[in-house]
Amino acid sequence: MDFNSLSLDELKRIRKDVEKAIVTFEERARKQALSEAEAVLRQHGFTIEQILGKPAKATRAAVMPKYANPEDPTQTWSGRGRKPRWVVDALDAGKTMDDLAI
After folding, report:
1. What is the pLDDT of residue 42?
2. Whether the Cβ atoms of residue 49 and residue 57 lie closer than 8 Å to each other
């Protein structure tokens, strides 16, 4: 391919296509390697989690909500993580967290 005869837009499109092809190639190669490793482990009676010492998937228990939006009680918050917008707005309006408690 003669790159010198291509326009800038064509070169940029080719670069974008090549970058995308590299990413998808790496993802396919990773999935293939994982699949092959799992197959070998199954032949020996193991799972990948047993070998790596990691749980298959950790699940967290649901946390009960502690606060509710007085204007819309269906909007609740457990008090963990980032404050929802309605909490911030209520605090800015002069309410306290006790006012929002369930």
Report:
1. 92
2. no
